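User: Can you write out an input/output pair for a complex, sequences first and structure second?

Assistant: Here is one pair. Inputs:
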Amino acid sequence: MSANKRPLSPHLQVYNPQITSVMSILHRMTGVVLALGSLGLLWVLASLSMGPEAFSATKSCLDGVSGRLAVFAFSLCLMYHLFNGVRHLFWDAGKGYDPATVTRTGLLVLALTVLSTTGLWVLATSNGGAL
Amino acid sequence: MKYRNPLANAHGLGPAKSGLRHWWTQRLTAVVLALLTPFVVYCLAKYGVSDYAQIKSLFAQPLFSGLSALYVLALFWHAQLGLQVVVEDYVHSPGLEIALQVAIKIVYSLASAVALFAIVRLALSA
């Protein structure tokens, strides 16, 4: 019997999604999105330093439907990763491990993500549009 | 500052050789980012549509430019550390993994350099 026919330990797909596992993988996924999106932030900063024409070209790129969607997705990922990251820092300090607390802080992170993203866009649009 | 117990030195480094440094740097940059991100997104939402001169005048303030520099450094460092772990965990072909790790390090080092240059240029010309 060859080694690769041996039974494997249960893998991800045998488990039902739980708030812990789903939020953990979301933390990674938003992290990857933010890491790539941070290069977009660099593009805004670099064009700002290159003068008014370069900056207004960047702005008009971000002003379209796809640009706005990208900025919105970035802000949503950022708020999630920020609040869940603070949750991770508490875990690193050894706090908040019992199952009831983990669920409660998970729901709190989701609520804060929605509220802060909404608040941010209300502030931005009341100023006449984001970016 | 030393964060490691001297026992770790006496025993030699851990099996990963540099595991704690990666872990610790990721947390340190996370704290910087967690403290500064509310300020950064507030500025983006508030001044994103302002005219060019107004945005540029923000960079004339040393504290604003300094915090921006700290932010981009922490951001790109944290991004590099995070992507490194993702590639370590999910990319199993050795050649591709090394190529990605090298590319990630180069891209985010370059990003840091470009961002710092842009901030200095804005600060000095504002």
